[in-house]
């Protein structure tokens, strides 16, 4: 079967990359190339920024209600095409269709509606003085870029572009070249919704070429990036000297703190999900499980037994709990991390290698849920992000020790705490060095709350008003009475 070639979305049109070159795109469940992605270069970026510049005045100056109405039309079309998008996302990423149906795709339209509504309700601040009054205008930044990763492709892409567009900016979006297909379908839906030409441009390609051209385009005034800490570091070094506004959502090595007084069944069920959901490829997955020593043997034995029952299979099958990991390089990386854990003295309690899936998926990139114990917190396995279905177990004796282990990492994205003791939960939440804490739950998301990490997990916050503030510039006007 011929592979499908997708196109860039620039100035309201679907266009080929100017180089005439495409990159291969693989289906993780089969290991086969099934589409080709534009290998866009600086010329494509110039074209997209020209288009955005032409659209800027009309988009930024039209009424907020007009912008919101168009964004709602895009959200409606996402909902109307939900099943098609579920199939696209699952095939492109390797995640199960069930997960894409439950989490990814519903969140895309929700993101767009949420920020369209939020923009409608934004008010200007005003500060009065005895002899003067100040009012603070919030204006769009102009042309901004949103660069997103492959783990939650359309979910994170819309999470970025929605506030940017709602605030009145024109956007050049660059989805991950590893999972470009849902953003391509979004281009078609934006055309159908009547989004004015040039307001949103989606340019596909590699980080090194397409991404780099975006970072160095002088007319782009802000970069909103989600991805690895390593890439984030590079982006900061290129963008900061240009004084572009920068938001970085990066990696994590999140701890789960499990106390003996927790609601055991709820903790067990949720910890299985927080360990392995999306093959462990969610930045919020808990990869270091810290367990109070008196509960450790019971927890370990049952957790391992239940992890062994998690079905890894064809992402299209409704009984598959885990699908494939996203790419051959990522599959190789995870297996190498498991080897490193063994070399560091870790004991593999279950999993530890590829998962065999027969039939059409025989050559896909599947990995068994893997649980490791016996490693100190300062080893590489417990310090480096693996971003796969791999977790470690460590016992602790006191609250202070739990906290010390939890905070002993270069990252600081999220944590979960499992205890029935409200006072302990509050104290722990206060003392954890991370941006998101869940108590007796995981991944409950209110889009109004600030989202982001401490330390090497990022700079700045997304979500709710934080995102609207990032994508706008304030101007204070002072009038003397
Ligand atoms: P990545 O850093 O390799 O790539 C992310 C995006 O950046 C892609 O679109 C890529 O093409 C682009 N990119 C790469 N090099 C670039 C460059 N030199 N200039 C400009 N753009 C460049 O990350 P990934 O492997 O796609 O995603 C996985 C990582 O993302 C993990 O570390 C995960 O923790 C992190 N993540 C963080 C969050 C969060 O909210 N904190 C959410 C999801 C994923």
Keywords, please?
481 residues, alpha/beta, Aldehyde Dehydrogenase, Chain A, domain 1, Aldehyde Dehydrogenase, Chain A, domain 2, 7-stranded mixed sheet, 6-stranded mixed sheet, 15 helices, globular
What's the count of strands?
23
What is the makeup of the main sheet?
A: 7 strands, mixed
Q: What CATH architecture of the largest domain do you see?
A: 3-Layer(aba) Sandwich
Structure classification: alpha/beta
The CATH top-level class label of the largest domain: Alpha Beta
Q: Give me the CATH superfamily of the largest domain.
A: Aldehyde Dehydrogenase, Chain A, domain 1
Q: What is the approximate shape?
A: globular
| Hetero ligands | nicotinamide-adenine-dinucleotide
Strand order of the largest sheet: 15-16-17-14-13-19-20
User: How helical, in percent, are the residues?
Assistant: 40-55%
Query: Mean pLDDT score, rounded?
Result: 98
The number of helical elements comes to 15
How far apart are the termini?
Answer: 74 Å
Number of domains: 2
Determine the CATH topology of the largest domain: Aldehyde Dehydrogenase, Chain A, domain 1
Radius of gyration: 23 Å
Strand content: 15-25%
Detailed description of the structure:
With about 475 residues, the protein is α/β, with parallel strands linked by helices. It has two domains: about 5-250 and about 455-480, Aldehyde Dehydrogenase, Chain A, domain 1 (3-Layer(aba) Sandwich); about 255-445, 3-Layer(aba) Sandwich (Aldehyde Dehydrogenase, Chain A, domain 2). About 40% of the residues lie in helices and about 25% in strands. The strands form six sheets. A seven-stranded mixed β-sheet has the order 15-16-17-14-13-19-20, with helices on both faces. Strands 10-9-8-11-12-22 form a six-stranded mixed β-sheet, sandwiched between helices. Strand 4 (about 20-25) and strand 5 (about 30-40) form a beta hairpin. Helix 2 (about 65-80) packs across helix 6 (about 180-195). The chain is globular. The model has no long low-confidence stretch (mean pLDDT about 100). Bound molecules: nicotinamide-adenine-dinucleotide. The site of nicotinamide-adenine-dinucleotide (NAD) has 31 residues, from helix 7 and helix 8.
């Amino acid at each position: 079967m011929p592979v499908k070639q997708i196109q860039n979305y620039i100035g309201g049109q679907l266009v080929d990359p100017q180089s005439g070159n495409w990159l291969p795109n693989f289906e993780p469940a089969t290991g086969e190339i099934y589409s080709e992605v534009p290998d866009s270069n600086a010329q494509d970026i110039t074209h997209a920024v020209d288009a955005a510049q032409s659209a800027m005045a009309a988009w930024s100056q039209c009424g907020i209600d007009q912008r919101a109405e168009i964004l709602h039309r895009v959200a409606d079309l996402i909902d109307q095409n939900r099943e098609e998008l579920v199939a696209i996302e699952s095939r492109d990423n390797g995640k199960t269709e069930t997960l894409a149906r439950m989490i990814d795709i519903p969140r895309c339209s929700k993101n767009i509606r949420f920020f369209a509504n939020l923009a409608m309700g934004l008010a200007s601040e005003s500060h009065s003085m005895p002899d003067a009054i100040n009012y603070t205008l919030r204006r769009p930044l102009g042309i901004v870029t949103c660069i997103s990763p492959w783990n939650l492709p359309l979910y994170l892409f819309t999470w970025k572009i929605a506030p940017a567009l709602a605030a009145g900016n024109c956007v050049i979006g660059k989805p991950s070249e590893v999972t470009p297909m849902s953003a391509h379908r979004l281009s078609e839906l934006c055309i159908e919704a009547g989004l004015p030409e040039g307001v949103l441009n989606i340019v596909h390609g590699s980080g090194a070429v397409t991404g780099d051209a975006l970072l160095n385009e002088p007319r782009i005034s802000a970069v909103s990036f989600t991805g690895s800490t390593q890439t984030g570091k590079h982006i900061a070094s290129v963008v900061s000297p240009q004084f572009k506004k920068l938001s970085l959502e990066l990696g994590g090595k999140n701890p789960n703190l499990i106390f003996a007084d927790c609601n055991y069944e709820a903790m067990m069920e949720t910890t299985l999900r927080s360990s392995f959901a999306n093959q462990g490829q969610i930045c919020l997955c808990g990869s270091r499980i810290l367990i109070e020593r008196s509960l450790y043997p019971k927890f370990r034995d049952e957790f391992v037994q239940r992890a062994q029952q998690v079905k890894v299979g064809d992402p299209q099958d409704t009984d598959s709990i885990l699908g494939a990991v996203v790419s051959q390089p990522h599959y190789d990386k995870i297996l190498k991390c498991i080897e490193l854990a063994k070399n560091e003295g870790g004991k593999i309690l279950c999993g530890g290698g590829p998962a065999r899936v027969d039939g059409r998926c025989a050559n896909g990139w599947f990995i068994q849920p893997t649980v490791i114990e016996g490693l100190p917190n300062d080893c590489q396995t417990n310090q480096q992000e693996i971003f796969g279905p791999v977790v470690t177990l460590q016992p602790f004796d006191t609250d202070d020790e739990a906290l010390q282990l939890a905070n002993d990492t270069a990252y600081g994205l999220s944590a979960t705490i499992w205890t029935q003791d409200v006072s302990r939960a509050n104290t722990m939440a206060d003392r954890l060095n991370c941006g998101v804490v869940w108590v007796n739950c995981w991944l409950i998301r209110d889009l109004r709350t600030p989202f982001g990490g401490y330390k090497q997990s990022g700079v700045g916050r997304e979500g709710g008003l934080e995102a609207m503030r990032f994508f706008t510039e304030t101007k204070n006007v002072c009038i003397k009475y």
